[in-house]
Amino acid sequence: MFFYCHNCHNCHRKQIFARFLAGIGKNVYICTRIRLKSLPIDENMEYISVIEFAKKYGISERTARNYCANGKIEGAFLTGKTWNIPTDAELPGRKPTKKRLSPLLSTFREQKAMKLKGSIYHRTQIDLTYNSNHIEGSRLTHDQTRYIYETNTIGISDEAISVDDIVETINHFCCIDYIIDHAEDKLSESLIKQLHLILKSGTSDSKKDWFMVGDYKRLPNEVGGMDTCPPKEVHQRMQALLSEYNAIKRKSLEDILDFHVRFEQIHPFQDGNGRVGRLIMFKECLANNIIPFIITDALKLFYYRGLREWGHIRSSYARLLPKGRKNGYLTDTCLTAQDQYKAILVHLKVAFLI
């Protein structure tokens, strides 16, 4: 094996390397018979050893040598067998490890692209849309929701149907597509506002001057007889909530539920807060490899009670939660909903966890 001298343009045999070559980067060397001042180094620069560099950055000496040998530390050069590293050299940045996609999210995206009927994507579109809208007062039946999704018709009805119920059903289908496409995106004010914009566009509310579609409320509102955040404080409260939530590196189900409760307490939009909040929960479960869930009409009262009593009731799952944060009704309700959704996944033979 030969080494090529970058300076004198001669080749040198491998056995000469240890005594006569100085490296200036990956596979680039200068023979030491060239005077030191001829080397491409800064004479005013101070240098440290591999041992000192490794100690400085808390890495192994072997890792430091590999960085030098692979040309990852700028200005490092080899004299004999000793690496000389500039004192101000920085630790090479590591490429961020790509987060593995949850199998369920991959399945959703694949089936969405295929428009596959009878799939988990198909079923989720109908079930999540029907239940979330029904909780908020929609009069459409599950069959009518399915007809709209599958045939763009509502079927036969014996009573008048609200146009808004139909529009918001179609919009909710689009919201689910949006959270599937953006499941891995960091939760932000713009993403949340976009969900509201999709949900409420084309409704009778959108034609009201005071109703802000895709933006925070202008007028005070309440939920369940309780006052919510004043309009002028919404932006600040949402920023603080998102900052705290996004600082959590590994989000648990409890973290997602805690965000949901606080989001609903702020109630940032004039209307549509419940549906947007439940869409966010579904998105964040997908993003964090947690089995998502659908709050069904049968669980609605338990869900509402859980929102009111978050932080006050001990849970039968207390052993799974950190001390001081035992939140019974909502946690139990969502775990029940999670079990129901998991049963559907198993039935359809859909992989759901990494």
How is this fold's topology laid out?
Elements (H helix, E strand, L loop, with lengths): L1 E3 L6 E3 H7 E3 L5 E3 L15 E2 L1 H8 L3 H9 L7 E3 L2 E5 L16 H12 L5 H16 L6 H10 L11 H19 L7 H12 L21 E2 L2 E2 L3 H16 L6 H14 L6 H15 L12 H9 L19 H20 L7
Antiparallel strand pairs: 1-2, 3-4, 5-7, 6-7, 8-9
What does this structure look like?
The protein is mostly helical and 354 residues long. The protein folds into 2 domains: 2-86, no CATH class; 103-347, Fic-like fold. The chain is 47% helix and 7% strand. The protein is built from 13 helices and 9 strands. It has helices spanning 14-20, 50-57, 61-69, 103-114, 120-135, 142-151, 163-181, 189-200, 231-246, 253-266, 273-287, 300-308, 328-347; strands at 2-4, 11-13, 21-23, 29-31, 47-48, 77-79, 82-86, 222-223, 226-227. The strands form 4 sheets. It has a 3-stranded antiparallel β-sheet. A hairpin with a 2-residue loop joins strand 6 and strand 7. The longest helix has 20 residues, at 328-347. The protein starts with a strand and ends in a 7-residue tail after the last helix.
The overall number of domains is: 2
Helical proportion, percent range: 40-55%
Global structural class: mainly alpha
The helix/strand order is EEHEEEHHEEHHHHHEEHHHHH
Side-by-side strand order of the widest sheet: 5-7-6
Strand content: 5-15%
Ends distance: 46 Å
